[in-house]
Design goal:
The structure is a single chain. This protein is of the alpha/beta class. It folds into three domains: about 140 residues, no CATH class; about 120 residues, 2-Layer Sandwich (Nucleotidyltransferase, domain 5), CATH 3.30.420.10; about 110 residues, no CATH class. The protein contains 16 helices and twelve strands. The strands form three sheets. Strands 1, 2, 5, 6 and 7 form a five-stranded mixed sheet that branches. Strands 10-9-8-11-12 form a five-stranded mixed sheet, sandwiched between helices. A two-stranded antiparallel sheet has the order 3-4. The model has no long low-confidence stretch (mean pLDDT about 90). Pfam families: DDE_Tnp_ISL3, HTH_Tnp_ISL3. This is ISAtfe-like protein. It comes from Methylotuvimicrobium alcaliphilum (strain DSM 19304 / NCIMB 14124 / VKM B-2133 / 20Z).
Length: about 400
């Protein structure tokens, strides 16, 4: 078996394609390259768009970078035929080893995407594959765009909305997540009211009526609330449990800070009051019991904090509302400013907080997605191009379906 036949088999070429020559070159910098020259059998005809066999009009030279052969960069070369179609037009034939317009083979692109999927930064992928990083981004963005166009969010009924930072400072993108499928369906720049409109427009473009979204989980952002009311008027809002608890913990910490200014014994006990009791060590739990006895204001704040979290276990809406009214009355009686402020926030977002006991949805899935996004951002040391960042979110968290070769998964 000669080398041309061997490489034809290795590339999986089918008639009329065949490797006609194999060359190996080394330049003055001792960089070696393997060149595989592909040809087609003389007299071959190729199918046009109407599925008719057409004669070759002429050829045009093309080159693609392929997977490396051992440590040697490999290139495929071919005089690609152009055919005269049945309607009299001249069209370049699509080759089976590469997509139109690409300078890489499908297997090369699949390897690049497999490396990215395995959490390797694009710059590192480019270094390994010996190409400019922008060329890897071009490959990446092509396949993301194609998969997004084919994506089907038609089953969505529960939508999660949250923002995540793109870089240091006030730069954000907003994520729209299908909570049932735990995947990102849309990413848009910014974090205001318009982001809800963008999510609704995306779903409409995909054939999903805004009335289909029955539930939305989000934080207490006024702009999100206004956007949801306008873009998804039929959806019931559940204010995300994790964001509500975060505000509660902030109130608890403000009380601790105020007490700490007068009592040195509270130094180093921030998380003693913020963690759940079951997550404390035996030593810290004992210290907690002592501190809430020594400092009555802090003890009452801690009691209110623990008590509030019973809300999430209420069996129904009437019970939850009765509990929450009693809790707010207890806060008023305690006269702790930070908790009064939090109670006023609860009153202002009453229905969306109470609705949790009926919907049982939260942005917990989004918190996990956000952690994955921030980890990818740190590995890449940030993204200067916002579109690259958005497409990386789709790639990591969109559960998109790709049709490139999956030999590396």
């Amino acid at each position: 078996m000669n080398s041309e036949t061997l490489f034809s088999m290795a590339l999986g070429l089918q008639p009329p394609w065949q490797v006609k020559a194999v060359t190996f070159s080394t330049d003055e910098l001792a960089r070696s390259e393997l060149h595989l020259h592909i040809d087609f059998v003389t007299g071959s005809r190729f199918l046009d768009d109407a599925n008719n066999l057409c004669p070759v009009h002429d050829t045009v030279e093309r080159q693609w970078q392929h997977l490396s052969f051992f440590e040697h960069t490999c290139y495929l070369h071919c005089a690609v035929p152009r055919i005269t179609t049945t309607d009299g037009k001249v069209r370049t034939v699509d080759v089976p080893w590469a997509r139109p317009g690409s300078g890489f083979t499908l297997l090369f692109e699949a390897l690049a995407l497999a490396l990215i999927e395995r959490e390797m930064p694009v710059n590192r992928v480019a270094e390994i594959l010996k190409v400019n990083p922008q060329r890897i981004w071009t490959i990446f963005n092509h396949w993301i765009s194609k998969a997004k166009a084919a994506d089907d969010p038609s089953m969505i009924t529960k939508l999660g909305v949250d923002e995540t930072s793109t870089k240091k400072g006030h730069h954000y993108v907003t994520l729209g997540v299908d909570l049932d499928e735990a995947r990102v369906i849309h990413v848009t720049e910014g974090k205001g009211k318009a982001t809800l409109q963008s999510i609704q427009q995306h779903l409409e473009d995909k054939g999903v009526d805004k009335e289909q979204v029955e539930q939305i989980s989000m934080d207490l952002s006024p702009s999100f609330i206004a956007g949801a009311a306008e873009s998804f008027p039929s959806a019931q809002i559940t204010f995300d449990r994790f964001h509500v608890v975060k505000l509660l913990n902030e109130a608890m910490n403000q009380v601790r800070i105020a007490e700490r200014k007068e009592h040195d014994a509270l130094k180093g006990h921030k998380y003693t009051f913020l963690k759940n009791r079951e997550n404390l060590s035996d030593k810290k739990e004992k210290e907690l019991d002592e501190l809430i006895q020594l400092y009555p204001t802090l003890g009452e704040a801690y009691r209110l904090k623990v008590l509030f979290n019973d809300l999430w276990e209420m069996p129904d809406k009437p019970t939850a509302e009765a509990f929450l009214r009693q809790w707010c009355d207890a806060v008023d009686a305690a006269k702790i400013p930070a908790f009064i402020k939090f109670a006023n926030t609860v009153r202002g977002h009453w229905s969306g907080i109470v609705h949790f006991v009926e919907s049982l949805i939260s942005n917990g899935i989004l918190e996990g997605i956000n952690s994955k996004i921030q980890l990818a951002k740190r590995r890449a040391r940030g993204y200067r191009n916002i579109n690259n960042f958005i497409n990386m979110i789709y790639f990591l968290c969109g559960k998109l379906k790709f049709d490139y070769p999956l030999y590396f998964t």
